[in-house]
Amino acid sequence: MRLTRPSRTQERLDVLTMLCRKQSCRFLVVAEPQIRNYSQTSKLKQERRKMMPSSNSFHRIDDEHKQIVEKYISVRPVPLGAIARDLGLNVKISALERGQSGLIEYRDGAYTIKINRHETRERQRFTLAHEIAHFLLHHDIIATTGQIADNVLYRSGQSEQIEYEANRLAADLIMPNDLLFSDLSEMGVPVTDEVIERLAQEWQVSKAAMEIRLSSYAA
Length: 219
What we know:
- This protein is an alpha+beta fold.
- Helices cover 53% and strands 11% of the residues.
- β2 and β3 (110-116) form a beta hairpin.
């Protein structure tokens, strides 16, 4: 019997899944990746769209904040700075403690997000989305405790559920389902490593983050 070597995408996702299990964390939905052509019939596109709803975390945002977010998630890359500004959040690129990716704090009646200046641009963008998500979902906790500070694994001392919710919403903010699905449909090509890298560059996220996001679209 002839053995087939797993694709690079499969190998990378296997590693991500293994690391996730070791750290007892939860990513989005890491399904077995498959190379598929997303330019299919309108009926199938509609069916796939139904399979890819925004997370429950997104639907928990209050109406006022949701209107602000929805103003900006129809363009790529999503202008996270503009979202933060309109939400009344101050954003600072700071020299944080080693091993800390970002934090959001409440002081003197204002919310401030601090992002580690030493991390990559793509990593900083996801961290910013994560901290915005904390504000949208957990502002009461932040106001009570003073801050939520996330390490490089996006752990903060808060419950695993709270960090899971923030990660889910961060992905919805930085890689909105509708627009990303539209990109895949218009490209009309199999989802290869090259396609994933191109999408990651256009959306200004890491290739690993894009792989994880696309894995939730696999049948």
